[in-house]
Request: fold
Amino acid sequence: MAPRSIPLCITLLLVALLAVPSVQAAPEAPEALQATAGNGYVDLSWLPVDGAERYLLYRGDMDGMAMIANLSAPFTAFHDAQVEEGESYLYYVTAVVGGEEGAPSNTVAVTVPEEERDFLLPVLALVISVIAIQVCVVMLLYQFKSNFRLK
Reply:
């Protein structure tokens, strides 16, 4: 190789390296997805991903998953009130970095509790109300009888 061709080879090598699109690593998966269920809701939270522009939250069951929220970073929590009591759900979240959706987080399973129906308190209130009405009627009858005695 002639000394003049070395700069030409280096130039061609640099052009080739710059012309090849760089391969970016896929965004990280969000970590530590957690779910807490209450009567009619599920609260979800996860750790942030560096450089994330937004997060896509998915909900589903064993038959499939569907995206339910598109959250702008830095928000890393969601309150899902579109759930049914007594139903079980699966959730996962992905991060979007540079317009590319990353791998899914850990999947969490949660069952929304059914509202407890306490029948004792209403029944007890009804019984006490009936007793109170009976006591009032007896007191009124006694008062009425005392006022109208024959002399």
